[in-house]
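PROTEIN DESIGN WORKSHEET
SECTION A - STRUCTURE
LENGTH: 302
TOKENS:
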């Protein structure tokens, strides 16, 4: 009977765990839908601003080629003389229970850090997310200049992207850093994501080039102020949108990973409950059979 009591306890424990993982799965699924909604809504704005800067970028390139003149790139797009000082921004989560999401990011960040150190580069790190900070602190504590909570805790807001931009741009313009990269999980689907280290400074305009030119049939788009000034203004806006896009990709990836992980945990718990219940029933049936045998034997003896 002690075995039956122990199995009953285990079954109840696993059932309680299954309820928790099932609830966490539903919460993550809801947050994933919200994150995907943000991604979809942001797509229209992204297309608009990318098309706008593509027109100006194309016009400058075309005129430079026609008249054999150069033009000045925005400061954000101008490479430094020697790319020696690197800043890595690592986006992870504050909590676990999201499968390999954090470990993949940490491995990607560590691999990139070692690669840069092998090349003789100076590396500084900003970690946004408790899990990434704790893991990287063990080996690279002296390289971490700032750490903070994950940007996706309450849902990514555009102001958070602006805040991060306002922090790293002065570092780039003053020469404190020559190159800035972000290590994050790029969202593909609820079941698929890629860990990438993406350079954001100096900003490569080809990343936002949609192929739209400044000619619409026989009409030519003009700008006021001039194209160079307009490119400078648009680059600032597009760069903020680009950083925001990275953040919302990170948000969707985390929720997708957590939903997948909790779904797997829930299914495993259900399988375990079924196995434990079967074992419990067999033991109970065996105990009942034994008692009946003893009763019958006792009756025959009488």
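SECTION B - SEQUENCE
RESIDUE ASSIGNMENT:
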């Amino acid at each position: 009977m002690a075995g039956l009591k122990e199995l009953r306890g285990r079954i109840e424990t696993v059932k309680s765990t299954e309820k928790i993982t099932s609830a966490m799965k539903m919460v993550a699924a809801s947050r994933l839908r919200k994150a995907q909604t943000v991604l979809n809504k942001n797509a229209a704005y992204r297309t608009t601003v990318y098309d706008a800067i593509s027109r100006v970028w194309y016009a400058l390139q075309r005129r430079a080629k026609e008249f054999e003149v150069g033009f000045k790139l925005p400061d954000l797009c101008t490479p430094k003389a020697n790319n020696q000082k690197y800043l890595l921004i690592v986006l992870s989560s504050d909590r676990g229970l999201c499968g390999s999401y954090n470990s993949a990011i940490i491995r990607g960040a560590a691999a990139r850090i070692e690669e840069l150190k092998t090349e003789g580069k100076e590396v500084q790190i900003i970690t946004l997310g408790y899990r990434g900070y704790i893991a990287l602190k063990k080996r690279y504590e002296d390289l971490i200049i700032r750490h903070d909570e994950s940007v996706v805790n309450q849902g990514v807001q555009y102001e958070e992207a602006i805040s991060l931009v306002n922090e790293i741009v002065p570092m780039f313009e003053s020469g404190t850093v020559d190159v800035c990269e972000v290590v994050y999980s790029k969202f593909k689907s609820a079941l698929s994501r890629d860990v990438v280290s993406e350079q954001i400074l100096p900003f490569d305009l080809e990343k936002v080039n949609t192929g739209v030119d400044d000619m619409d049939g026989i009409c030519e788009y003009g700008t006021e102020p001039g194209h160079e000034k307009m490119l400078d203004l648009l680059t600032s806006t597009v760069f903020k949108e680009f950083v925001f896009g990275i953040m919302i990709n990170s948000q969707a990836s985390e929720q997708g990973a957590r939903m997948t992980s909790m779904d797997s945990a829930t299914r495993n718990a259900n399988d375990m409950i079924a196995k434990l219940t079967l074992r419990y029933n067999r033991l109970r049936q065996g105990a009942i059979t034994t008692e009946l045998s003893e009763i019958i034997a006792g009756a025959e003896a009488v």
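SECTION C - NOTES
Helices lie at 2-67, 101-118, 130-140, 158-173, 227-301.
The mean pLDDT is 89.
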